[in-house]
Amino acid sequence: MNVMTAPPSTKAAIVDVPFAHREIVTRLSPGGRYIDAETDADSPWVPFGDKAAIKHLAFDVRQGIFSNILWIKEPGVIGTHLHRGTIMMVCLEGSVKYLEYDWVASPGGLILEVPGESHTLVTDHPNGVKLFGWMQGPIEFYDENANFVETTDVWWFINHYETHCKAHGIPLNPKLYI
Fold first, then answer.
1. Most buried of the four, 6, 33, 84, 89, by CB within 10 Å?
2. Was domain 35-176 assigned CATH 3.40.50.2300?
3. Interatomic CA distance for residues 54 and 116, integer angstroms
């Protein structure tokens, strides 16, 4: 038995791979897409409080998934929150920590969060932090006395994006909705 140690990569070409359900996929799939996160061409920075902004990258209402880049522009805090779904984030710039843990994420670091965990996100970095996130499910925010403040979920993030775009005459980008 041959064991593949790496995928075949001898030719850069489109290969017509046989697939029994291609017509159904073509008819029903929203298809792959590219979202430019470096510029505002596909998605603007939307204010998230006084010291932060969010660049929305994807909304999947079927699975309650949303993706974005969170930018805390200077040393600051995103208040205590409880996750009801799984979160995966990559630190792109700066650094970040949770007060509840003993690690500090730096560029390239992967942060995994599981449902049922609460934490307080802090950046002490002079330039703040940028985090790419792929998030599923609601996030509940609490004040410093553990009183519930608000729930954010895919619908909240869609409203955040759409309200900002409409207020600033920015067309909504259909590529963000998967």
1. 89
2. no
3. 24
Q: Which residues pair with 13 in a beta bridge?
A: none
Return the DSSP state at 99.
T
Give tens-digit pLDDT for 81-124. 999 999 999 999 999 999 999 999 999 999 999 999 999 999 99
The answer to whether the Cα torsion of 8, 12, 16, 19 is positive or negative is positive
Whole-angstrom distance, CA of residue 103 vs CA of residue 30: 38
Q: How far apart are CA 78 and CA 174, in angstroms?
A: 29
For 3, the token pair is 């064991």
Measured CA distances, 148 to 35, 82, 98, 105, 115 (Å): 34, 10, 19, 27, 17
* Length of the chain in terms of residues written: 178
